[in-house]
Amino acid sequence: MSSDARPQELSYADVNRDVVRSLVETGSKYYITLACSIAVMLACFFFPWFYQLYYGIGAAGVNHPSVWGTYLASFIFWIGLSHSGTLLSCVLHITNSEWRKAMYRSAEAMTLFSLMVAAMMVMVHVGRPWFIHWAVPYPNQMEMWPNFRSPLMFDVMAITTYLTGSSIFIYMGSIPDFAAVRDRTTGWRHHMYVILSLGWRGTDLEWHRLRWAYTFLAVLIIPLAVSVHSIVSWDFALSIVPALHQTIFAPYFVVGAIYSGTAGIVTVMYFLRKYMNFEQYITKVHFDNLGKLLLVLSLIWTYINIVEIFSGWYGGTSTEGEAIRYRLFGYYAPLYWEMILFCAVAPLLMISKRFRTSFVPMLILSILINIGMYTERFLIVGTSLSRQYLPDAWGLYVPSLVELSIIVGSVAMFITLFLIFVKIFPSVSIYEVKETLPEPEPEPDTPTGEPEWQPTH
Amino acid sequence: MSFIDDFLASWREYREPGYYDSFDYHWTMTVDLDRCTGCGACVTACQAENNIPIVGEDALARGREMQWIRIEKYWEGDFPDVKLRFIPMLCQHCDAAPCETVCPVSATYHNQDGLNAQVYNRCIGTRSCAVYCPYEVRYFNYNNHHWDAPLEQQLNPDVSVREKGVMEKCSFCIQRIRQAKDVAKDEGGRRVQDGEVQPACVQTCPTEAMAFGDRNDPESQVSQIMSDERAYHVLEDLNTAPSVVYLRKVEGDVV
Prior knowledge:
The complex is a heterodimer. Chain A is an all-alpha fold. In chain A, 67% of the residues lie in helices and 0% in strands. Chain A has one domain (7-135, 149-435): Formate dehydrogenase/DMSO reductase domain (Formate dehydrogenase/DMSO reductase fold). In chain A, helix 3 (70-94) packs antiparallel against helix 4 (104-125), helix 3 crosses helix 8 (249-275) and helix 4 (104-125) packs antiparallel against helix 14 (401-422). Helices cover 24% and strands 17% of the residues of chain B. Chain B is globular and about 75 Å long. Chain B has a four-stranded mixed β-sheet. Chain B is built from eight helices and ten strands. Chain B starts with a helix and ends in an 8-residue tail after the last strand. Chain B has one domain: Alpha-Beta Plaits, CATH 3.30.70. In chain B, 38% of the residues are buried. Chain B is an alpha+beta fold.
C-alpha cells in the first residue's frame, strides 16, 4: 500500500523541511482567514449567546413540549464529529496501518476541538450556565452531590474523561515532533517547543517508553470512545418519550458519530492538503481508504434507520406509530428525506474507486454527509418531542435566528481553534511519516557542519 | 471506622424494601371527570396561589404558557355530532417519576410526603425533566416575568417567584401542606386530619370534582374514592405510579 502512498524521492530531510515550513511560514491568506473566523465567532456565537444570557433561553425557539432545541442537536453533532479522530487513530495504530501516519495528528486535533465546541454548546443549552459546576461532583459547602442516577451526569463524566484521554494522547504522540521542531526553530518558537517537548532527546529508552505508553492509551481510548456516544444516546433512550425510548439508540449514535466524524476527517484532509502544501503526504490512498470506511458506515447507518422504523411499526402502539408518521410525513418530512438522500443514497457513489480517489467530489460528499447528520440530530430532538403521549400537548418547534446564528458561530469557533492548532502542532507526524520512507544512506562519520535546513525568522 | 459503619448502615437502609414507597403522608388527589365541567376555576386559583406569571400574548402564541394545572380538551366526532371531553392535567407526583432520575443536580426529588418536589434554587435549567415527563406538566421560565402594577401586590408571600432559566410545576400547594403540618405539630404533634389541607384548585372547584388527602389513612376521603371502580391513572401502562387518580366519565344511561 505504501508503494503508491507518496513519491519515493521524498527523504527524511524533506519531511522535516515541509512540516517545519508549515509551522513557521505564514502567508497573508492565513491571517485573513483567521481574522474572518474570529470575527464570525464573536459576531455569530458570543454576541447572540450574551444576549441569550441576558434575556433567558426564550431567545431560542424552544417552547412547551419541545423544550430541547438545536443547541442539544449541535451538542450531539459536535460530540459525534469528535468520534472519528482519536478513535480511528487508535484503531489504525493497533492494527499497524501505514496510511494512518500522515493523517492522524489532524484527525485527533479535530476530536479535541469538536469536544471543546460541544462543551460550549452545553453552556449555551442550559438555562442557568452560571451554576453548571453543580453537575460536577466536588466537595462543597452545600454538602450536595450531583444525581448519580442521571444520564446527564454520566455524560459529564464520559465527556471529561474522553477530553482528558484524547488530549494526553495527541500530546504524547507529538512529543518527538515537538523536539524535532525545537531543533529547527529559533526565537520564541524555540522556547515554546523546549517546554512542549519536555526535554526529549530521542534515546532508545525514551522511544521504548513512548511506544509502550502510546499503545496503552490507544487500547484504553477505543472502548472509552464507544462508551461516550452510547452515554450521549442514553440522554434520550433512558426517557420514555416514544421514538426515543429505544434499545438501538446506543449503537445508532456510535455508528452515526463515527460516520459523521470520518466525513469530517475527509473535509479537514482536503483543506490541509490544499492549503498547507501537504500534497505529497495526504494522497489518494487516504481518500480511497476513508471512502471505503464511509461506504461501510453509511450502509450500517441505513440499516439501523430501517430497524428503527420497523421496530416502531412492529411495536404497534399508537404513540410510536404517530411519532414515526410525524417524522416521515409531518412538518419536518422534507428534512427527513434530505437526510436520507445525503446520508443513505449519495454515499453509494463511493462504490466506484474513481469517485473515492477524486478529491473535490469527496469533499462535497463529505460536507453533504455532515449536513445530513446534523439534520438527523435535529430530527431526533425536534420531531420526537413535539409528538408525545398527550395529544393536547403536541406542538411545533421552529429554531429562532439566535439559534441559527449560534450554529454558524460554533463552526467558526471550530475553524478558529483548528487554524491556531496548525501553527503550533506539526499537523503531519514527522517521525511516523519517516517510518514509511526508505532509510537514508548511513551518514559519514565526520559531520559536514552544514545544517540540513536553515531556520527562518 | 465509624465512617464505613455509617455508610454500610445507610446502604442497608437504602436496600430495605419500601425505602422508596413508604412515606409519612402519601398525598393524593382525585379528579372525578363525571363532575368536571371544564370551567377553568382551578387554573385561575392555581395562578393566583402560586405566583404563576401571566406570560402575555406573544409568549402564548409561541407555546410558552404557564399553567401548573391545565384543562386538556379532546374533541370527538364530526359536526354536528360533536363531543368535547375535559381532563384537568397537573403534576401527577409519580412515585416512580422519570423526571427525578434524569435531573443531574437532584433539583427535583421525592420528599418524605410522597411529593415530587422541585427546588428552584438548585435547578440549572437542562430541561431534561420536562422531556422525560410523559404528562407534559413541567413549565420552564424562558425569561424573567413581571407583574404589572398593582398585580405585584397580590403575590403570595409563601411562594417564591421564579427567575429565568428554572423549571417549575405543580407542588400540590406544598406551602399549605407545610402550614397544616406546623399547626398539627404545635398541637401536641398530632397527625394532620383529613380535610385540613386543600390545594387551591381543590378548594376552588365549584362542582367538587376534586378531592385531596392522605392515602396512608384508610378512612380519608381519597382512600375511599380510590376504591371506586371508575378509578384509573392516566397513562397507567408507563408504570410511573401517579398520585393523581381520575374517575372515569359515566357514558350513556348507566344506572
